[in-house]
Amino acid sequence: MKRYILTGTPGSGKTSILHELRRQGYRVVEEAASDVIALEQRSGNAEPWVYPGFIETIVRLQKQRQLAALGGHDALQWYDRSPICTLALSRDLGYSPCSALLEEIERIERENIYQLQVFFIENLGFCQPTEARKITFAEALVFEKIHEECYISLGYDLIRIAPDSLMKRVQRITEWTRDLRGKS
């Protein structure tokens, strides 16, 4: 089973790409952080990222979703972010990585959970704030750089997907995947 990560700054188009991949019949595993934020905000916690346990909650949900995806027989899976993105988030928020995060990163490396080729979705030149995404474009660029540094420091190869139409970005990703699968 091949598990590929899509990462990048908030608002880069990752979710739209993942939805198109799903529409084309691929197995997709949704991002955890946005769901954690939305759930907390519905519970009255307007800024859940300032509370202890925020990162751990994301890590638990990511692991739960990754393990649940094992039940499928799909030869190829796409992940909207990974625990390495959670490491980037932790660094961006100024937190030291919690033990749950460090253990999960160790597990995914030990068990070779994800392919070492990561699709790095480059920013679109703007970042549209949402209820869960309260970040300026300048902040998004800093966050993008932190993501890049985290992945590279852990030995992942970034396959950059430049801004373009949704369909051209999806086509580039699926072509790369065919090329990568042919090499393995």
TrEMBL record:
Residues 3-168 form the NadR/Ttd14 AAA domain. It comes from the Bacteria. Gene3D superfamilies: P-loop containing nucleotide triphosphate hydrolases. InterPro entries: NadR/Ttd14_AAA_dom (IPR038727), P-loop_NTPase (IPR027417). This is ATPase. The lineage of its organism: Bacteria, Bacillati, Chloroflexota, Ktedonobacteria, Ktedonobacterales.
